[in-house]
Every structure is written in C-alpha cells, then in structure tokens.
Amino acid sequence: MIVQVVVDVPTGGTDRLFDYKVPTHLQGMVESGMRVIVPFGPRKVQGFVIHTSNESDLAKLKEIDEVLDVTPVLTNELLELGDWLTTNALCFKITAYQSMLPAALKAKYKKEVMLTNHEYLQELPIEVREWFKHRKVVDWEELITSGDKQLLVLVKKGVTQGLLEVIHKVNDKVTQKTIRVVEPVSVNSLTNQLHQLDNRALKQKRVIEYFLDNPEPISVSALMEQTDTTRSTIKSLVDKLVLTEKEVEVMRDPYVNRRFKKTEPLPLTAHQQDVITPIFHSLIEHQHQTFLIHGVTGSGKTEVYLQSIAKALEIGKEAIVLVPEISLTPQMVQRFKERFGSLVAVLHSGLSTGEKYDEWRKIHHGRVKVVVGARSAIFAPFRNIGIIIIDEEHEATYKQEENPRYHARDVAIQRASYYQCPVILGSATPSLETYARAKKGVYQLLEMLTRVNQVTLPAVEIIDMREELKTGNRSMFSKALHEKLSDRLARGEQSVLFLNRRGYSTFVMCRDCGYVAQCPHCDISLTYHQTSRSLKCHYCGHQERMPQTCSSCNSEHIRFFGSGTQKVEEEVAKVFPGARVIRMDVDTTRKKGAHERLLTQFAEGKADILLGTQMIAKGLDFPNITLVGVLAADSMLHLPDFRASERTFQLLTQVSGRAGRHQLPGEVVIQTYTPEHYSIDLVKNHDFHAFFEKEMGVRRLQSYPPYYYITVIQVSHPEITKVIDVTEKITAYVRRSLSDQSVVLGPVASSIPRIKDRYRYQCMIKYKNEPRLVEILKEIIENYKKETNQGTLQVSIDMNPYVLM
Ligand SMILES: Nc1ncnc2c1ncn2[C@@H]1O[C@H](COP(=O)(O)OP(=O)(O)OP(=O)(O)O)[C@@H](O)[C@H]1O
Ligand SMILES: [Zn+2]
Ligand SMILES: [Zn+2]
C-alpha cells in the first residue's frame, strides 16, 4: 500500500505530494485525512495523507514511521477545500490543512485510548479486553510498544464501533482541567463501616448515607457541600479504605456554569416570513444559493437565522454560524444557546487551547449540530452541512491577515456548494462588494427595511464641533449631547457613549519643540498607557517608561495628548457627578469573562452610561438605552485606506442602532469636524442605499473594488536598499506579464514604512480579469524562495487585502 503525503515543511519546493510505503504492521490503519510521521531527508516530520493507492511511479520508497490518528481528522471535503485554498489564498498545502485544525493537534500531546463505557468491555475482542479489564484509559505508547501488530488494528476497529475513543491530552498545564472525585470502594464497605461507627461520628455517618443513596463519583468540593462535612472527614474515610479518591479529566465547557432558559421560536413578522421562505426552499430542495439579508438594526435578522437553523436540524443537517470576534458579543452566543441548548458548540479566540480542542471534538464526533464561532469556525469538521450563516458580513475580521489569507465568506460559499446548501450573509450595512453582487443577482437579495413591531429607527442629530468651538464650548461634549445626557440621567434611562479606538490613541508630545515619542523599531508613535504609566508600541510590543523630559530639547513640558476612554471617563465624572459609568475597552476587559460581566451589570441597570470603543458598537440589545453619543465620528475617516468611508458609515450606523430598540424611542448625537462628508451625513437618514450609490461612484472613479480586484505584494527586509531593489524588480515583472487592462502601482513605501526594524515597500495591482495572475504570483514566490527561506527577506502577497498598512 502506498500513501501520498503533504509534509510539514512549508517552503516552495516541498509543496507537493510525496509517496511513502505503508509497512505491513500499519496496513489497514491508514486512511486519507490522517496525520502521519514520515522520514524527510535527515528529519522526521508530520504530514497529512491525501490519497492512498496501490502503486507508485517511483521504484524506491521510504516507509511511513507512525500513524498519529485512528480516525481521519480531515474529511475528504476538507482535503479538497485545502486544495482550493492553496490557489485562492495563495498558500502552501500544509499551511492550508494546519489552519483547519485546532492548535492542540499541532502541539505536543500524549495520546490515550479510553473505554467509552464499562459495559462495552464484553464486546471488545479478547486481546483488547485484557488491556481494559482494570483500567478505563490506556496510553497509546503502551499499545505500540507491546509489539502486537494485530492489536492496533483491533483497537482501531473498536474506535470505529464507538467502544473506544482516542483522546489527545493537551500538554499544557494551564488548560488541562482535572477534578478530584471520591467514590465508595463498594457498597459492602459502606454498610460495614456504618455499623462500626462511633455514635458521635455524625459527619462520617452523613457521608456514608449519602453514598448509599448516590453511589456515583462526586467531586470533593461538591460532597463537602452536600453533606456539610470537611476535607478531613472525607480523608479519614479514604484512609479506612471505605472511599477512594482519584483525579478525572473533565470536558471543559466554558458555559458549564451558565443556565440557559429555553426559548421558543417567535411568530415571524410578515417581513421575516418573506425573507425566510426562499431560504427554506433552498434548504429543502438542497439548492446551493447565497442570500444577502440586508436588514436594518433591530429588524429581527437573528430570529431569521435561528429559525433557518431549526429547519436545517429538522431535516437532519448541521449549521455553522459565524459572528465577528464572538467573545465580544456574549449576547449573541446566549441567544443560540437558549434556543438549541447542548447542540451548540462555541469556538472563539478567547478559549484556551484545551477548551478549543474540546469544542472541536464535539463537532468531530457529531455530538453537536450547531457551531457558533469566529472566523476559523468556518472549518468546523461537520460532514453534513445544511446551512452557513455569516452575521455582520461586512466585518473586516472575516479576512485572515496571515497565511492562509482567506476570507471566510469565500470559504463558506465553497463549502456550501459542496454540500448543495444555502449561505446567508446578514448585515444592516453590507460591504460594497457583497451588495453589488446582490444587485447583479449573483447573490439573492432579501431586504428588511423596518424594525420589528413598528419600532422606529432612532432620530440622528449631527453636531459640527467647529461651531461648538466658535461659541466657546471647549469641552468634549457638545451642548446638545450635554443636554440629552442630563435628560437621560434625570429620567433614569441609559446612554451609550462611543469613542473610536483607531486613530484616537493617546500619544506623547513635547509642548515646546513638538517632538512626538516614536518607537525605535517602527515608524509609528508610541501610545501612552495610564495604568502602567508607560509608553507602548502597538506593532512590535516595545515598551518604555514615560519620559520626564523631552529627549529632543530637554524641556519638562512633555505631556500625553489625545483622548482615550479613561480621559472621557474622568470628564464624565467632572461634568455629571454621580452618574454611574461602566467603561469597556481593552484595559477593562482583559480578564476572562470581564466583558460579559460588565454587560450584565449594565443590563441589570447598575450603570447609567456605557462608555466604550468598538466592542460596544454592535450586537447589544438593551431596552433601556435611549441615547447614543458618538464623540468623534471622523477619527477613522482619514486613515490611508480606500475603505475608510465605508467603515465610518458602517460603524456609525451600527452604533446608532443600539438606541431605542424596544418601547422607548431612541436618539443619536454624532459629533464631528467634517459633518459634510457623505459617510457621516447619510447616517442621519439611515440611508444605506444612498451611501452605496455615492461610494460606488467614488470607487469607480478610483478603480477600486468592487469595480477592480486588488492584490498587494509587500516586501520587507532590514536594509532599505534591498527592499527597494526587490520591489522594483517584482513590480517591473508584474507590469511586463499582465495585460494592459490592469493597473500596477509602485514601488512605494507602505503606509507604515518600518515595523520591527524591517523596511516595507509594496506594489499594488488593480485588475478586472487576469487569468494568469495566480501563476505569475507563484512564479514570484518561487523566484525568491531561497532568500525567503533563509528568513531575512519576506515577500507576502495578499490577493484581497482588507487592512492596508
Ligand atoms: N418575530 C418577532 N416577534 C417579536 N419580537 C421579535 C421578532 N423578531 C425579533 N424580535 C425582537 O426584536 C429585537 C430585534 O431583533 P434582532 O436582535 O434579531 O435584530 P437584528 O436585525 O439581528 O439586529 P442587529 O443587526 O441590530 O443586531 C429583539 O429584541 C428580538 O427579540
Ligand atoms: Zn515598534
Ligand atoms: Zn522638546
């Protein structure tokens, strides 16, 4: 038997399949989609089996060393998808496959085989049964070193039958979760002991009686609580060999201590009904189709998602739901858990390696039917997908900014076409690309342009801060916002104050000479952090103490400028003494669960004002919020990115959408220095369609997406001459090779010209149709392979960049 393997050596020349022979003792063990260890040159490396066959063109083959899996970790569909990724995200095969798996499967781990249920012991063949007679768990290593080749084949069979399960124990102490449990040695020992007990040993008596009623293992802490005893009582019973104590691993479930009240489907409104009908049709007829639900904030998109998923489950299928950085929207997770209970797995970046692995296992073993997760959850190893939903589809976080540089939307459509099922993209502010495709009929457009139950969209007022300054108002609150905030405080209603994080961090400047503290390794100013009284670089992590004097002119007048959330909080305390404020930003939400705790406090009415950055802009649905104030709407408008206007409009619309979602009507105040800019002005009437038309005109004029595709080739190196030289050569080559319909810009310095002591130059390609582009880009990678493998030169190619820097 021969296997074709992709090896874990991510460089140009190895990005293909290698043939290996399967030694006799491993025959019958290997399938495609499994991980193996193979010899590669002088080393042993990990690899994925892509195909199996009976012959090879090569005469002499090496043998595989070891099989790491008992059942495939990648399905045939995912193997195909990996192939698609290598072309569409321009990455190596090994990188594509690795990105589909949880980190635990890449890390060092110990493998064990577990008997899933003691009753299955009799069903195992005698050779295997021997091993599990006195143990529930056996080390894989032990089975291998037994030298019994037939044994592994039999174990594998047991795994396929569900009698045994293979567990990878993640080798990091922090995440591994075990608890101490106690259980009775036998019922006899309990009753014997009960008779021997002194009458005064009341506590021991209680424990024994407890176990006579409940013989199952129980954690030491729970037992102490149940029987009102102490650890020493339990210990004395253990010493008398009445109870035994042991460590067991628990499945980590981050939501284990949360109770979710089951919710029932709401009767749909007429709009929701119109939207869900074609989705049901696509589901039932197994037709692959991509829908765009453009629904204003509070139009009830989530309820449509929930009922579409219920339909998919009803016909025996599975569902994937993507939400942006899920840890940031606990309310969203809650709505899915409340409807589908333990059928839901949650995957997001806030989980530990072990927790992620546990969630992945639930999916892999088919124990859950719904996954709610951030970007990478799009690779959930389901085998029978019925629907894929991407909420807030316009969010930039759906694009991965490192290899493989995929967009989750593209992957979703690719997977859904394999399973012949629908994809739903939902947003109150769809991306220009998506809405343009929907208008052209590539996606099916479904609109919900009013809120549920005749709730009106909030009234939006735009305040020109230049005018405020002219009338002598130097505070960070305009007169209008000040009045409305006081009004809310008096009425006991809640307000949201939004401050854009990007472009609004605090920097340190000398008042005498204008010197701004810069990172010594990057061309970017340092950010002041009040809690640690230090300056930090957000790109390389460089940190230094807040200087006492200016390093340029020695003046003592060195201060931090800009207005972070902390400063706003101080200002609120000054202007509205007594107002209760909850501040949400990176500093206050660093601890695990902090985000959720703060939101719960706000929901319970423990604060009047929720002050925060991006993380409060979307997903919140609180009935008592009647005012949203945006402190500086234009801080994002001037970023060097062609999507700056689009992002501004999206963000302002989203944050406005938090106001007045239930009985109480809402108001929004947007403060800005450029009220005339269309991305701000059009928020006033919630006019997405007008914004779309206007912005499309701008993009057409400047040859940007969706009229043109763009690809950016970025080169970096510690020496500037080298960077310029390479970028020049690449640019010239691209210009020569592409048709004259394409526009090639560069070489130019990137918008941050130096990061971590490496200079950065780039070339941008704008094109409509270049069938040879991927091939040309691969040639470039191949051409610089030797230098990039050495690590000094980097050439990175992004075929659809979302963050330009
Ligand atoms: N059919 C319905 N009947 C009654 N209430 C509903 C119905 N559908 C949704 N709602 C309620 O309307 C409110 C807004 O709905 P939802 O949060 O689903 O809107 P959304 O479009 O997802 O909003 P956003 O994009 O702003 O997050 C919620 O409180 C929800 O419970
Ligand atoms: Zn730096
Ligand atoms: Zn100075």
Structural features, described:
This protein has 805 residues and is α/β, with parallel strands linked by helices. The chain has 6 domains: 2-105, PriA, 3(prime) DNA-binding domain (GIY-YIG endonuclease); 109-170; 178-249, Arc Repressor Mutant, subunit A (Orthogonal Bundle), CATH 1.10.10; 270-452, Rossmann fold (3-Layer(aba) Sandwich), CATH 3.40.50.300; 455-504 and 563-701, P-loop containing nucleotide triphosphate hydrolases (Rossmann fold), CATH 3.40.50.300; 709-798, 2-Layer Sandwich (Alpha-Beta Plaits), CATH 3.30.70. It is built from 25 helices and 33 strands. The strands form 8 sheets. It has a 7-stranded parallel β-sheet with strand order 14-15-13-16-17-12-18, sandwiched between helices. A 6-stranded parallel β-sheet has the order 19-29-28-20-27-26, sandwiched between helices. A 5-stranded antiparallel β-sheet has the order 2-1-4-3-5. Mean pLDDT is 87; it is low at 172-176. Adenosine-5'-triphosphate binds next to helix 11. Residues 545-724 form the Helicase C-terminal domain.
